[in-house]
Design goal:
The complex is a heterodimer of chains A (304) and B (304). Chain A is an alpha/beta fold and 304 residues long. Chain A has one domain: TIM Barrel (Alpha-Beta Barrel), CATH 3.20.20. Helix content of chain A is 46%, strand content 12%. In chain A, strand 2, helix 2 and strand 3 form a beta-alpha-beta unit. Chain A is globular. The two termini of chain A are 36 Å apart. Chain B has 304 residues and is of the alpha/beta class. Chain B has one domain: Alpha-Beta Barrel (TIM Barrel), CATH 3.20.20.70. An 8-stranded parallel β-sheet of chain B has the order 1-8-7-6-5-4-3-2. In chain B, helix 2 runs parallel beside helix 3, helix 4 runs parallel beside helix 5 and helix 5 packs parallel to helix 6.
Chain lengths: 304, 304
């Protein structure tokens, strides 16, 4: 059996109607856009897809809808994180039944369990499925609960389908610790860059990447990824700097920044769901002006 | 006034006698060891040199030895950060008087200064001397007080002698926010990783690093930098993993574990001043097993 690798996984936003319901019609356009513009896999609904603002039923429906719409053209990785272990494990089972290629989950929301229970959380989610299971580490969003090398080694011991870590810590020591130790036990263990900061991650061993900015600048994201996969990291620096600049502009605009950037590229996707702040018209104008000044976006697709 | 900072630069530990008093003769041997084994610059006293546990008079005495012993063979920078800004100003003036090549300073301790206060501090420090100034960014040790890209830009525009950054976030996003601004404005600016995280930083324009383990394994440091600049990704990764394992070993009770390791390598430099612990026989024995496992004992110089 060939080992599953995400490759360049686009992480799409979730569009809502003005009544704040998932806009499945528009979402189909979003999916098609990603597939036409370099996605080798889709990972959803990630935090940039507002997973935490979707009900359990909505998350299941979104994943099933996507798998059906994609029709096997690329693998779909389902993000199943939750506060409760059982809820996340059930969602993982559902994703597998719906045809997901892999599942990914973070440390639990809200709770700060002791290390043994963090291990239990991941072990139960992973054991709920037979498809590959990835741990998503995003301490910037989830603060207190740390993932240590010891946890990863214990999880490797318990789960045959524990495929790797998706890193959004951007922390060099963390990535090196995890991958250098995991490779001794399981040489095909994968480090996945959870954002477009792929140069440093690739240099220490990352082979796949999740990208939310691929909705905005898919061509540059694909270039960055492709160069990194040839391990010519010096050559990747211009693309890395372009995408870092784009990321900072989107980040400064706040929670509505990503959808605002999509609108500026001619791909209107509405506003985020509460409690995230919608982008004000003044905020949008500022964002659009900053994006307009970014040379790299001139080579990117406009509209759908 | 121009100096070149590139490669693996050494920040020596501070040798102390058994009664914790300064051991200047051993400091001379240590400086000479670093110069002979490939250091491309000396910078003293970083936190690894127990800077904050030395009196201002002691710091001056050691600094004078450093400049005299290195004797122009490679550049010598003096770290001037002290709890009181007035002491830092005095150490900077002293560094200039004794013929140091540069000064280095971290963001002010304890007070959680605003961005504008950090800017004012570096302007005051940088304009008080004619030497090159290296800034030092260490957000995780200073409660998040850190350089932003914008602060870096303002300081580069204001200070012609601001030539380098010791960047110790070890984080892709933070490094890039500083590097892409600094290198665009001042192409010969040196981005220096705080310790030997060279594989993730050199492809992004990093000029080199300071060193945690240089007194233990200078050969490994030199080999890693060579692999990185040659773009030998697989070899760089392998050497990086080794050095990162040493960083994990030494970071625990830094720098006392490092001083313990130096005993193992036949280069004893005495105890570590309280409140930091001194590595006892048991800790030294553990370090010895780790160094043996990594092959350091066979591949690196023993004794002075």
């Amino acid at each position: 059996m060939q080992k599953f690798q995400p490759g360049l996984a686009h992480a799409p936003i979730t569009p809502f109607t003005s009544g704040l319901q998932i806009d499945f019609g528009l979402f189909e356009k979003v999916i098609e856009f990603h597939l036409r513009h370099g996605a080798q896999a889709l990972a959803l609904p990630m935090h940039t897809g507002e997973s935490v603002s979707l009900s359990d039923a909505e998350q299941r429906k979104l994943v099933a809808f996507t798998i059906k719409a994609v029709r096997g053209r690329v693998p779909v990785i389902a993000h199943v994180s939750d506060a409760g272990t059982g809820i996340a494990a059930d969602r993982a089972r559902h994703a597998q039944d719906a045809g997901a290629a892999a599942v990914v989950a973070t440390t639990p929301y809200y709770w700060t369990p002791p290390p043994a229970m963090v291990l239990e959380h991941f072990a139960q989610i992973g054991a709920a499925v037979s498809i590959p299971f990835f741990v998503f580490y995003t301490p910037g969003e989830l603060g207190a609960t740390k993932i240590e090398t010891d946890l990863v080694l214990k999880l490797l011991d318990r789960l045959g389908n524990f495929a790797g870590v998706v890193d959004a810590s951007l922390d060099w020591q963390f990535m090196i610790n995890i991958v250098s130790n995991a490779w001794r036990v399981r040489p095909d263990f994968q480090l996945v860059s959870g954002t477009e900061y792929m140069v440093s991650a690739g240099a220490v061993g990352a082979t796949s990447m999740f990208s939310s900015l691929a909705g905005v600048a898919p061509a540059r994201v694909r270039q960055l990824y492709d160069i990194c996969r040839t391990e010519k990291y010096f050559d990747a620096r211009p693309a890395q700097e372009d995408l870092a600049a784009l990321r900072q502009i989107v980040k400064r605009a706040g929670a509505g920044g990503l959808k605002g950037a999509l609108r500026a590229m001619g791909r209107e996707c509405g506003q985020p769901r509460p409690p995230l702040d919608a982008l004000s018209s003044g905020g949008y104008d500022k964002l659009a002006a900053e994006l307009g000044a970014l040379a790299v976006l001139r080579a990117e697709p406009r509209g759908w | 006034m121009s100096i070149s900072l590139r490669g693996v630069m050494q920040s020596p530990v501070t040798p102390l006698k058994a009664d914790f008093s300064p051991d200047l003769p051993t400091f001379e041997r240590l400086l000479d060891f670093h110069v002979r084994t490939g250091a491309t610059a000396i910078s003293w006293p970083h936190h690894k040199g127990e800077s904050l546990n030395l009196t201002i008079a002691e710091r001056k005495a050691f600094a004078e030895v450093a400049v005299r012993v290195v004797a122009g063979r490679i550049p010598v920078s003096i770290h001037v950060s002290a709890l009181a800004v007035e002491d830092s100003m005095e150490l900077a003036r002293h560094a200039q008087r004794i013929g140091a090549d540069a000064i280095i300073a971290i963001t002010p301790y304890f007070w959680l200064p605003t961005i504008d206060a950090i800017y004012d501090y570096f302007v005051r420090l940088g304009t008080s001397i004619d030497l090159p100034l290296i800034a030092y960014n260490s957000p995780s040790y200073l409660a998040g007080v850190e350089f932003t890209g914008d602060l870096t830009r303002r300081l580069i525009e204001r200070l012609p002698n601001f030539i380098a950054m010791k960047e110790a976030s070890f984080n892709s996003e933070k490094f890039l926010e500083i590097s892409r601004v600094a290198l665009a404005l001042r192409p010969d600016f040196s981005m220096i990783a705080g310790v030997e995280f060279l594989a993730p930083s050199v492809p992004l324009g990093g000029a080199g690093s300071y060193s945690s383990a240089g007194a233990i394994c200078p050969n490994l440091c030199t080999q890693l930098f060579a692999a990185c600049i040659a773009g030998e990704s697989a070899r760089a990764r392998e050497l990086q993993f080794k050095l990162s394992r040493l960083w994990v070993l030494f970071r625990d009770q830094y720098p006392s574990s490092l001083k313990g390791g130096m005993v193992v390598m036949g280069r004893p430099v005495g105890p570590t001043r309280p409140p930091l612990p001194t590595a006892g026989k048991e800790r030294q024995a553990y370090i010895a097993t780790q160094l043996a496992e990594l092959g350091i004992l066979e591949t690196e110089p023993h004794g002075w």
